[in-house]
Write a structure and sequence with these properties.
alpha+beta; OB fold (Dihydrolipoamide Acetyltransferase, E2P); five-stranded mixed β-barrel; elongated; membrane; transmembrane helix; transmembrane
Length: 171
């Protein structure tokens, strides 16, 4: 009878150790996912301006952008022209709109722009720039000239001008 209780007690201890081991593995996996998410989506990113043109923002071109790590910077300073569509204010305070680009700027689009944004480029005005004398907040149908960082928003896959630090309404 004593051997039966001893065997049952050892099995119980082994089961407890297995559960603790599995719990420790789960904690490590969650920590790795959290660290990955922070550095690839939520974390900061510094991308210094490489263009000396005075129209281009100097210093970190992503300064003031929310969740900077989600962007892959394709060019630190790009100019576009086109017509504004679908303007809205986002939860993070950005004005977001799509621009039907003039033909000479269509090369800034990728497949995700063509498939998800009706062949238009996403443009975002961050809160830091909304009261700037360099930024005119456009309305639906306005023709604009805009300058900002050309990026890929990696969670969506499309290209954007984000942030845009100069907008001139031309029509």
């Amino acid at each position: 009878m004593c051997d039966f209780y001893y065997a049952k007690s050892n099995k119980f201890k082994v089961d407890i150790l297995k559960k603790k081991y599995l719990a420790a593995i789960a904690v490590v996996i969650v920590a790795i996912i959290g660290i990955y998410g922070y550095y690839h989506y939520f974390g900061p990113q510094t991308v210094l301006q490489t263009n000396s043109d005075p129209s281009c923002r100097q210093g970190n071109v992503l300064d003031g952008v929310d969740r900077q790590a989600r962007f892959n910077v394709l060019s630190t300073c790009e100019t576009i022209t086109g017509t504004v569509h679908d303007i809205s204010k986002q939860d993070d305070g950005d004005y977001q709109f799509n621009v039907d680009l003039d033909s000479q700027y269509k090369h800034l689009l990728n497949d995700a722009n063509n498939n998800q944004v009706k062949g238009m480029l996403v443009v975002e005005i961050i809160p830091k720039d909304q009261n700037s004398s360099n930024v005119q907040i456009p309305k639906e149908g306005d023709k604009i000239r805009a300058i900002g960082a050309w990026v890929t928003d990696t969670p969506h896959g499309w290209n954007e001008i984000h942030p845009v630090w100069k907008i001139i309404i031309t029509k």
